[in-house]
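for the writeup, i need someone to sanity check this before i put it in the appendix. the sequnce is what the collaborator sent (i think, or maybe the updated version? ugh). structure was predicted straight from it, no edits. if anything looks off just tell me and ill rerun, i have time this weekend
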Amino acid sequence: MEYLEFELPIKELEDQLQKCKLIGEESEVDVTETCAQIEKKLNSAKIEIYKNLTPWQRVQMSRHPNRPYTLDYIRAICGESFLELHGDRGFKDDKAMIGGLGKIGNQSYMFIGQQKGFNTKTRQYRNFGMANPEGYRKALRLMKSAEKFGIPVVTILDTPGAYPGLEAEERGQGEAIARNILEMTRLKVPIITVVIGEGASGGALGIGVGDIVLMLENTWYSVISPESCSSILWRSWEYKEQAAAALKLTAKDMKKLKLVDEIIKEPIGGAHRNKEQTYVIVSNAISKTFESLKNLSPKELIEKRMNKYLEMGVYKD
């Protein structure tokens, strides 16, 4: 397990606990009471540290190298029922955007999300979770297929942004994202959006127009990353912590501003510390959300979705 800077007191106590147990195993000394005291301190330290995280620390948590990614969630939630679908039928298959059919219980869903890599090789293969225009066009193709067969859509957001390269712009990056936003507002099936990591800029919004938007506790959702914001405002990345606080990008801020609908609480220490429990929590949240949407007619869904997004940013005296 890798530790972030603010998690070092936890690492220290966990190392102490491990050494204490090792002494007990290798000798006849009874260390039960000592281990219990360290465990008590460890639990208190975890509660104290994780309940007082700053916005920048939340950003760090969302990028934790051990944190589960989109395919981890889909495979854990759907098991062998997941069938990945490929290609935009126009240019090629974008590895940064994945999608396919899968089941939670007896209900089928169309899952679409950005996929990051877990090591250097897979990060390059997945383009660091930054989709090209063909990725967004693939996502739209899958959403339209889901609409045709009356299958609800689940979009999973985890991207530092859409790919900003010259070739992406040449193939219509902005148009592809804008087209997705337009088509998602009028899609005739329920759309459930889950932010599982980074939700940056139009790259996230290109598959982020949902009837219900859920955010995991240690994630962020913003028009720009703290580092980029810092470099624009202060001409340096040194002010990323102030930028993170000013951007109001945490799940709590987003809920308060009514830009997302629900916060999914993570196990103590973050999703990466108890992946199995996180998968169950997310799976239950998706099923519960679908239950609240499944009886709405296509007309009601679209009207409700349109009103939700039209009301964002409206100020009333």
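The CA atoms of residues 249 and 303 lie 27 Å apart. Strands lie at 83-84, 97-104, 107-114, 153-159, 191-200, 212-216, 220-222, 262-264.
thx in advance!!
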